[in-house]
Amino acid sequence: MSLERNRVALFPLSWTIVHPIEEGSPLYGLTERDLAECGVEFLVLLTAADETFMQTVHARSSYRYDEIVWGARFSDIFEQDRAAHDLTVDVSRIHAYERTALP
After folding, report:
1. What is the pLDDT of residues 74-85, one digit of tens each?
2. Which of 18-36 are b and which e, b meaning 16 or more Cβ less than 10 Å from the residue's Cβ?
3. 63 contacts: CB under 8 Å, gap ≥ 6
4. Rounded CA separation 67/45 (Å)
5. pTM value?
6. Among candidates 60, 61, 90, 62, which has minimal Cα distance to 78?
7. Distances from the Cα of 75 to the Cα of 28, 86, 89, 98, angstroms
8. Quick one: pLDDT at residue 90?
9. CA dihedral 1, 67, 91, 84 (to 10 degrees)
10. What digits encode the pLDDT tens for the residues 8-37?
């Protein structure tokens, strides 16, 4: 599947992998029911380089159709303290999401 960004040169504090569901996407036009009927499962495989130890890091995750939250997007996990010029990540919100309007 194509991704909004298929490569990053410098790993940011947080990175959300985005696959635009538009014409040409294998998910285009599918409904929640379609995915359930097929028992869809998404496998995510990431490979990165840990610059501290000069090692290749592999991560694997699996998401079944019943774990997908339709009509939602991840919440912002960044907090900025302008007075102190600090940018922090609130990892307690790593799984938080907000409801959006479905197109």
Report:
1. 888 878 877 877
2. eeeeeeeeeeeeeeeeebe
3. 41, 42, 44
4. 17
5. 0.66
6. 90
7. 24, 19, 12, 6
8. 84
9. 60
10. 555 555 567 778 888 999 999 999 999 999
- Strands (DSSP E) contained in the chain are 41-50, 55-64, 72-74, 78-81, 86-89, 97-99
| pLDDT tens track for 55-72 | 998 999 999 999 999 888
Structure-token pair, residue 58: 């592999």
Distance CA 24, CA 21 (A): 8
> Tokens 């479905």 correspond to what residue?
102
Quick one: which of 99, 11, 101 has its CA closest to 51?
A: 11
Q: Which of 79, 72, 65, 63 is nearest to 97 (CA)?
A: 72
Average pLDDT of the chain to the nearest whole number: 83
Compute CA distances 33 → 28, 30, 63, 96, whole Å.
14, 8, 16, 24
Q: Which residues contact 34 (CB under 8 A, 6 or more apart)?
A: none
